[in-house]
Structure formats: C-alpha cells, structure tokens
Design brief:
4-stranded mixed sheet; Glutaredoxin; 4 strands
C-alpha cells in the first residue's frame, strides 16, 4: 500500500499513529506529498487533491482520514479502535468528529495566517478562533471520561499536538486573536492527558524521519 501524506517535522499524524498501533509499518510505503503544489500528482489519484490518501495494491484509493483509519483498523488483530456497534460506537465517532473539526478549523487559521494582515478577514479569524477555543474546552470536559484507547483519542492527540506545534507561529501572524494563546493553558485535565499520551511510542514514531 502507498500512503500519500505531508510529513511535518516534529509531528506524528493520526494516520501514522494508527499505522503504528496496527503494526502495519512494513506494509505501507509513505510518499511525501505537498497538496498545494501546482505540479502535484495527487489530483490524478484523489480528485479532491487532499491528504491523506491511501492506495491499495489493487490500485483502488481510499481517501479521507476517518475512512483510512477505519480501513487500517480492519487489518489487524489487536483490540479495535472503532467500536463495532451500539452507543459506544456513536459516542466515539462523535468525539472523533469533534477532534477532526478542531484540526480542520485550526488549518483554516493556518492558511489565513499566510496572508498579509491587511488582507486577512478579522471576523472570519475571530469566528474560527472561537470554535478552536470551544472545542478545546469540550476536550477538557471529555478527557476525564476516556477509558480504553479508541479512534477519538488518537484524533484528539493529533489535533492538540498540531495546535501546540503551530500556535507559536500562527497566532502571532493573525489579526484580532491572542498572539500568546496556549492550547493547554487553563485546561489541567487536557494538559495532563496529552502529556501522558505523548509519551506513548505510537505517538512518537513518524513514518518518515526528517533530518
């Protein structure tokens, strides 16, 4: 299988941690991909031109993080990250969806930060920032109830770690938000949880080593 994704120095994507958990590293060829590059070939595989995209041996492609995670979860014999049925499944999927929303909304702020300040949209920035804060507050309430590892926790680790990595450069470049914003400040439960999760090997081993 081939995995098209964008490696980031100092960061382990959710898809990488799921691959680590499922012990599938030897079965996957990681391909560094920049989806915003004009000459990327990603669009020939995935019409949306988004990462991650997984290409199977048959040539079929699987796109969309949540779809890829569940496919990978079907390939191993360890305890599954996706509950099979019932209330626990839909609770987990909802929490994972919220973590996806946190990641995706922050990416919108990252993209906005690339613009000169006089071209940024202050109200749009404030709206996105408010959603980021609200979702972090939701995680602060949720993490004390986390039990066994599931995909929602994997996704939350990925989202919060991405915020921690990029916040020092993104927020100072934006208009109308706190330049010194710290995702973990004032959130003791989330802070303790994310630090304990970050020590786990599955969240510390990227597929591509970046020197």
């Amino acid at each position: 299988m081939k995995l098209y994704y964008t490696p980031i120095r100092g960061y382990v994507h959710t898809v990488e941690s799921v691959i680590n958990y499922a012990e599938l590293r030897e079965q996957i060829e990681p391909i560094a991909t920049k989806p915003f590059d004009a000459d990327t070939a990603l669009g020939e595989i995935n019409p949306l031109g988004k990462v991650p995209t997984l290409v199977l041996e048959s040539g079929q492609y699987i796109a969309g993080g949540p779809v890829i995670y569940e496919y990978l979860d079907s390939l191993h014999r360890r305890r599954k990250l996706f509950p099979a049925r019932g209330e626990s499944r839909f609770k987990t999927l909802t929490q994972a969806w919220m973590a996806d929303g946190l990641f995706d909304t922050f990416v919108l702020l990252v993209i906005e930060s690339w613009l000169p300040r006089d071209q940024q949209r202050p109200e749009y920035v404030r709206r996105c920032f408010g959603k980021v804060v609200a979702m972090l507050d939701r995680l602060e309430r949720d993490v004390p109830g986390y039990e066994r590892l599931d995909i929602a926790q994997f996704r939350a680790v990925g989202a919060v770690q991405f915020l921690r990595l990029k916040s020092p450069t993104v927020f100072p470049a934006l208009s109308g938000v706190d330049a010194a914003f710290d995702p973990l400040a004032g959130r003791p439960a989330l802070s303790a949880w994310i630090k304990s999760m970050a020590r786990r090997k599955i969240f510390r081993e990227p597929l591509i080593r970046m020197e």
